[in-house]
Amino acid sequence: MTKQKITPILIIAFITGCAGVFGVGSPYSKKEHDLRVGNIPSSLHPEWKEADRCTKCHMIWSWKYGYYRGWDRHGFISDYSESSPFGYKDPYGLDVPANKFIDYYYTDWWDGPWLEAHNSPEPAMHFGGYSRVNDGTAKAEDFEEPVIVVDQSGQGDTRTIQEAVDKAQPGTTVFVRAGTYKESVILKTGICLWGENAHTTIINPDFTNSAIIAANNCDISGFTLTGTGMNYKDYTFSSGVHALDCDSTLVIRGNIFDSNAVFGVLVESSRAGGTPANPQERYINFDDALKNIEYTGYPNPRIIGNTFYVIGERAVFSIHAAPEIANNVFIGNVKTLGMTQHSRPFIHHNVFYRNNVTINMNRSMPVISHNIMLNNYWGQRIVEGALPFVHDNITWDSPYYKEFTEDGNFIPYHPHPGQGEREVDPKFVDPDAGNFSFAGNSPLASGSYGIVNSPGIQQPPVVVCKRSYAEEFNNRNNKSDTIVAAIKKQKELIRNLKVSYTIDYKSFMDVEYDKLGDQKSVNISKEPVSGMTYVVPLFIMSEGKRRKTYTSELFSSARSLSDSGTVVYDGEKLQVLSGRFKQYCTSFDDPYNTGEKIFRENTGGIYLDYDQYLNGSIGPMGTFFYGYLTLFGGKVFEKRENVDGHECVVIVYPNIGSDQEYKFYLDPELGFCPRRLEHYFERELYRKIDGYSYKSYNDIHVPVSATITDYAVKKPHIGKVVGSCSVKVNSISVNGD
Q: Is the pTM of this model over 0.85?
């Protein structure tokens, strides 16, 4: 991969990227600076009083784990601070700072010796190596002394688990009888922590801390671990098991991780120089977000034979870590396996069922083999900076991809090495009942996939899949699925498309920027202060490929610019054959085919394509309005609303909180094509797309005009129009008509 050294840069995310801005130096007071870099005091910032929980969680996550603010490019994630924007400023205007996402994704950010140190696609597997399998039948007397029995009724040696751990010496088994223990357990080296039965022996710290803080040479087995997530009183995260600097002598097995709001298991390394004990001191400054953080090692505990059920953020999250994750069942989680900061987990022989994201690979190099993916929604995702080995997995009704398009379709990755995904139905006996054994007619009955059931190998506890948090989170239901199916059917009718169109954009927002590139102050003018006319005499789209020629005239108060060029997209990679953005397409080696995202994030002339209007995702860099719906689903309202004389179904995509919301007004008479789309930011109307008119070709409905209106969302300008954009189709041909 071609590398660039990072110089002091500004990064500005507009509608597709979120409001993250980083740089060197700060023009702010200490209070303002502390807010921006995440040094959060114990009391709530005044700016956050109205923020929803999702916003708060996103912000703390970004600061604590080194993601740039608004790491999710689906749109702005508000922080209710002065750094959030007054309104949308089109990046094609000439009076805005340069967008440097190109530096974010294609630099030596993830380079280092970790690549050379982890180059085998088939490392050794370690299913065993612990004491007897915990099947819920053992009694305290089955263990050799020393044994300390925990019993809430007083019939044991202690009433609390922590008291028993404090008394225990290395080599001691702490046997915990059934009951719900409202505590956080801090282990010490050499303890076997054994729950009597995973279904009835429960540790619930009630969000005060992690359920178990692990240590080396420990065996954690036979518990339901729940009641962890984010503590909104002091803005701290907790997990079912927190494994800091733990090596392979820590085994986490035979447990049920149930309804943990953020992490099931968090595996991380200490930072070089020591990980600050005070959580507030662990936040990563914005201007350090692109730097490699130095760590002390690669923790590699073994996570074997557990069941993870309805976890919110990451069932297992690895930070500069290399855990072995095997023989587990993951059911109904929103985010399942995640990794960052050069992690290299070994993920094998697991089953993933009815999750949203199964494996999210970010800035890491995992080995993923012999797993089964069934009925997952967002699937396996390779993000820039991920260099995985993916081989010998089974996928059925679950996507695996390196990117998704504006309409929510997936761009599959190329497995490495060899055959990474076999798309066959595994035919489990009854997955909703937690039975992931193969039926007699399964094509996998004689293969080495999924859960390994052999003597001495810990089996995951059986959990009935009564619900899927992924489906609830995305509002996946019969209503939304029916509408999404109709939308996709409409799009599939279009085989070839030729269009000539014109886009006119005007901005009325005159902006003064601070040193970090944020909107410091604005003035809303009656006359346009910048804008663009963009003419495409020919746009051709055929089977996922696009080609266009364009001319553009841009103006601002300071200068003007003319440009013309040709852009080609081959279904995976974007090429700028001519024009002022050609330079961005000549210097990047992309061996893992992460594709076009870099150009989507780059400003200028690249993504003003007709397919955005076709898919209801209009915006200079694409905004995924319609794609959200087809990718995730949404809440369908019973009551319909009239838009321009048409009765429309109303759907809301709400799963990033009420601070940011997308609202769809879809016309069932047109195959659920949009009549209006709305985006709310900090609970104010931020962007509206309406004024649609359509032309129909044999039940294919294509837009020939639409209008975008952008609004200010911060005082004292709330509700004022800050920009307008319109598209007009000059000529169009569908499927050769």
A: yes
